[in-house]
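Hello, quick one for you while I still have it in my head. Could you read through the record and tell me how the tokens relate to the sequence? No rush at all, and the record is pasted right below.
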Amino acid sequence: MNESPPLAKEWIRGVNIGGWLVLERYITPYFFALTSCHLRGDFRFFPHQIDAPPPTSPLYKPITDECLPISIYPVDEWTLMEALQNGSPAPASARSDDRHHHYDDSSTNQIAQQYLDIHYDNFLTFKDVKDLKANGVTHLRVPLGHWILGDVAANEPYVPGGWKYFIRLIDWCRQEGLQVWPDLHTAPGSQNGFDNSGHLGATMTCHGWDQNDNAANANGALPHNVQRTLRILQNITATIAKDQLTDVITGFGILNEPFSDCDMDIVRKFYDAAFEIVRKNIGPTTSVYVGDMFDSGRWNDGFWADESHEGTYLDSHIYQSFHAHTRDLSPKQHIALVCARDHIAVVECCYNSGRATKGIQRIFTEWSASFDQSVGYQVPALMNGIAENGVAEKFDRQLSNERKEFLRNFVEAQMVSYEAVEPGESKGWFYWNFKIEGGIFAEWDFLRGVREGWIPKLPDKDVSSQQVFGSCYDVLYQTKDDWNVVEEIPSPSNETLANDLNPIDDDVVLSHGSNLRKNGNGQWVVQPSRLFEIEVCFVAVCAILGAIFCMTRRGTKRGYIGIDNLEVNEVIKHVDTSVGSFSSSED
């Protein structure tokens, strides 16, 4: 434990309220498991469904055999609303061009609204908020859909709603002393093609948002969907002010996860305009955070570096369970990845001419304890289990004590790394998510982690996690490298590992942390590998032999002199230069 004095800084340690106002299938799978009963407005609920009304409520009715699962379960909010309004979701092939389909306020729209209201009312509770506060959480990040206040085009099936429940949450947070940082999680046309953008695309791309209007692009104006997003931000932030929520809402996220192929010029113009909107409507000191487009290093060019952008943050999301190479690691390697490669990504921004900016800093609004299991790979089996057996796959899954012990270390390492005490560039983090239905994705469930002890009580906001848990390498050192805690899904194969785009080449990770040692100041340093030491020795020997050979050759014709006429220091200097040059190239 580091006994250094507390830092003159207050950390943000937040949790996401994901899957609530913007739906995600893996978070609430039963809500997506529609049946013939749901489509006619006869809402039935599965045993232990997380967002069901209490059994004492007149709204509660259990699922029965007469309620037949629909042929294709929805995959996102678009297809869920589409199913409730049309009687079933359209096949993926029919959704490739939906510009000419119009939705209206018919009775089916009312069915969708009623179904959503049940979810909004029951998924997030006041007890959840109290429990988060009791464990030291300071902030909540609340994803908002761009349709929440009614901005829905005729060809979109989205159903507005949820604002009154959002206001209720703000009141709960006011009572508990929590701050709320909502974010615009979706955008018209989809800014990334992810299901969490509201509409799952055929590919991951930003171009439904930033390249949907060729005429606008040609004359230099922002594309239609980008302009529409700015109008939506204007409406949401103005309504926050009108509803007197600014005492609790102290920060705002402009847009979640714009994809890496977004037009950089368009994104920066959008960020500049959105920044002005947020600061004008919510307040001049409102914190503003923006997505890094999955590459924080591309923002090290003076972006928002001036003092007028103080209180702004470049936001990164770091997960290890999304790629085959990062899933296929030992326990120590997973934590080494946090301490080494991931930490490099943490501190690679934000600078201007090599110095920390006076404006934008860093924040990490999504990470989790999931490390070895793919969500996307398991969701189909999860939903098939409901359709075939009426029970979500691995609903009662339990974690071994050994796995919980590792998860505790994994969580603590990430807390320490993402706070980035040494460069002082980070403001803090938000865990994803506050809770999850069932057990298949237990590692994403913050409140479960608190109950089971693999998420620690959070330090006081003016105390860094490093002061409590030690450095990231301290956590790595105390971690057991027990492969039995790893439950990799899907199982690794040479094909998946060869095709992975994120190979691991970090020495600390590859050595399982065995190349770390503490120096005389008690700081962890990377000890060169045995192979590197052999190579250095070989170069040194060659340099000495070469120097001796040159200096011992005699003969005035060629101007050579004997070694006895030279100082030994000259030989040593020659060797040092050669070895130093080799070491530099290795670094």
The CA atoms of residues 536 and 580 lie 9 Å apart. The chain has a mean pLDDT of 87. The first helix runs from residue 29 to 32.
